[in-house]
Structure formats: structure tokens, C-alpha cells
Amino acid sequence: MRAEHKSIARKPLQPIIKLLVAFKIPPNLLTILSLPFSVLVGYFFTVGKFIIAGIFLLFVGFFDTADGEVARQTNRMNPKGAFLDSTVDRVSEFLVFLGLFIYFHHNISIAILIFVTLFASFLVSYVRARAQGIGNECNTGIFERPVRFIFLVLGSFFLTKKLFPIVFWIILLGCVFTILQRLYYVLKQGNV
User: Which residues have a Cβ under 8 Å from the Cβ of 36 and sit 6 or more positions away?
Assistant: First the structure.
């Protein structure tokens, strides 16, 4: 997401962020706390309790936002924290999709769709990380992790289980578009 969109998304959380800062909660602890909630999301998807999974997914999203915001506001941003955050994000996303995969495993075409969607989702983050590794910031594209999770939450709350695979198609197409945007952006840079 672009910086202005991220700041708009963070605004409603500011009172809670200020409280976390006041209590000196370390950003890395917030990063780690997203993992048990991700396990719960995966579990509730597995057993078909999609609304409950969606509720816990909101907590995952909160911790995913709060860790970076607390790090920014307390001047504790550092490469180790970013590394931990990125790694935990991938594990968290895997746990969520694993729960969905287990629930839909009886339908081979949906199971394959979930697998391909997860791969595309990981590739969005990978392309950005590799771009940063060669000196390009690569903030282009809108289907970053928070957007993908928003679609999962909305699908959990408002779609029947039969219609839920629409969410995978939306995420997959959005990820492919974002990957292509990022590849184009990086490859047209003069330093590549």
C-alpha cells in the first residue's frame, strides 16, 4: 500500500498505539503475538467457522500494523526487527492458507487454487524484498499483505463457504497484477 493509504489505515489505531508506546511494549513482542492468533485463524478455517476465523484475522492484522507503528513512534526500527516481521508475516500467511486448504481439500480444483494463490502471495513479498536487495524501494502495487487479509476478512464475514473461493481468485489476480507492476518498475530502473 502507498504511504498515504497506510497512514489512513493506521489512524483509527492511534489511541491503542499510544497506549502500547506508553507501556513500553516492544515491537518485536507485538510481531510474535500475531502467531498464536494466526494459529487460531487457521484452526477455525479448518473446522469451517469462517466468521470466528475472520474475527481472529482482525487481531492478526492489528498486530501486523501495531508492531511497525510502535517501532516507528519509538525510533526502534532496525533491520533485525524488519527481518523478524517479514519472516513472521510469511509464517502467519501460511497458517491462514493452510487452514483454508484443509477445509477445501476435498475439492481438488479449489485446493490447487489455494496453493497457487499462496505462492503468488509470497511472490509479491519476495519480489519487493529482492528489489530492495538491489537498491530499489519498490513500493508499487496495491495487493500487499494487509489488502489480501482485508479480502479474507470480508469473505469470512459476508460470503457463504460455497462462494468463498471467489476471494482466492481476487487475491490471485491482484497478486499477479502487483507482481507484474513490481517487475516492470524494477526492470525499468537504470541501476538493474
Answer: none
Indicate which CATH number applies to the domain containing 117. Answer: 1.20.120.1760
- Contact in structure between 119 and 66 (CB atoms under 8 Å): no
Average pLDDT score over residue span 155-169: 97
Contact call for residues 166 and 159 (beta carbons, < 8 A): yes
Instruction: Answer whether residue 176 is part of any domain.
Output: yes
Domain holding 177, by residue range, is 3-187
Cell triple for 128: 519487493
* 185-188 long-range contacts, CB within 8 A, separation 24+: 185/131, 185/136, 185/138, 185/140, 186/127, 186/131, 186/134, 186/136, 186/138
- The domain total for the chain is 1
Q: What is the rounded distance in angstroms from the CA atom of residue 153 to the CA atom of residue 64?
A: 14
User: Is residue 192 a part of any domain in this protein?
Assistant: no
The model's pLDDT over 44-70, given as tens digits with 9 standing for 90+, comes to 999 999 999 999 999 999 999 999 999
Sign of CA dihedral 100, 111, 154, 149: positive
**Residue 123 resides in a domain:** yes
Note whether 137 and 131 are within 8 A (CB).
yes
